[in-house]
Amino acid sequence: MPKTLIEPFRIKSIEPIRMTTRAERERLLEEARLNVFKLRAEDVLIDWLTDSGTGAMSAHQWAAIMEGDESYAGARSFFRLEKVIQDITGMPHFVPTHQGRAAEKVLFTAVCKKGDLVPNNCHFDTTRGNLEYLGVEAVDLVVPEGLQPATIAPFKGNIDLDRVEAVLQKEGARIPFGMLTVTNNTGGGQPVSMANIRAYAALLRKYGKPFIMDVCRFAENAMFIKMRESGYENTSVRDIAREMFSYADGATMSAKKDGMVNIGGFIVLRSDEWLDEVRSDLIMMEGFPTYGGMAGRDLEALAVGLQEGLDEDYLRYRLRTAEYLGEKLEAAGVGFVKPTGGHAVYIDARTVLPDMPVQHYPAWALCNALYLEGGIRGVEIGSVMFGKRLGDGTETYHSMELVRLAFPRRMYTQSHFDYAAEVIAEVKQKAAGIRGVKITKQPRFLRHFTCECAWV
Length: 456
Ligand code: F0G
Hints:
By secondary structure, the chain is an alpha/beta fold. Helix content is about 40%, strand content about 15%.
């Protein structure tokens, strides 16, 4: 058998991407105030800003779009998607939203109150934002190795059960439910083991707390379980996913990831206890319960996408692409979060720019350098994203300086990855010439999206 794992699809419709010259990119980045979020996408050659809503839909999904029933109430498309979701999750109640953060907002508004506390392995920033907005404390309790980029372990997304139990004992009265993010995006796209899911669920049950999973990347997590957790080698990913869901009382989903669609999300719930409250919030915030925040055609595309996202040939190829880029970075002496996660590779900027002071934002600098060198756009996960300028003008900094390269699904081929690996190796060679930045203008919240910078 040949060893090369090929893309398990062929291309039917293409979208041209445009090469730019280095001189053009220098001008474009200056115009964008040294913030790649402000670039026009058409000026980017390889766009690895996010894997969210950016993937390619299949011919089957595009065909399903024509079947969309746009009725306000009781659309056929709702019932078709409901059945698919009930089959995959085993949960009877499905509430559609326009994307993941809307699912969070609707559920949290219905269930949480000021002063509450929610444990998670790591909250994604919108999850944390939605909780904090309601006055709820969001506590991250990932296992210690989940915060060590160079440590190799199979399930670095696991939640630390000892610390969870301590929090349940001490703060039990404040906890409306426990959460778990699969895979753990903020912690490097690392998976959670079935053993950890099962034990966490049992712990929550012992203290009478419901268990809510954030399942944006549940299919990738299920494939990691198949590949890494003993006892699951011969279980289908579909059955693994079903078992994962079987331990939970509900879930929030951004369908823009493993749902293989450009927009969409949902909540699923096992019991109807919260359902009336959730549905009234949904009507206020998103729409009528049979479409939520989605068009009928989007419900159709998702009904097909969820099934395609569980295809094992696709998932094997998907996880292999990240691993493949990781091998090339290893050969080039570039450090990254190991092992590579499901949807992205997280470069450790300190291994490329060891001498750059954190005040010059090394991960942001590396992000800019990747664009200048090869037209690649990633996202900084470092002190611009997580640091703060305090009232007295002093700055706080993040513990890690990472650049995330997140891969849209079914979009880039192996030669795009080869090209990117060459660009990154080249940037590492020329690291001495990479300039740091200072922030010249910033908003109060989520500053990385809109801040303006200048070279130091
Ligand atoms: N939860 C996780 C784990 C996520 O990664 C995201 C989005 C959300 C919730 C929110 O979903 O975007 O549909 O509202 N992550 C994207 C990213 C934006 O780039 O990682 P959304």
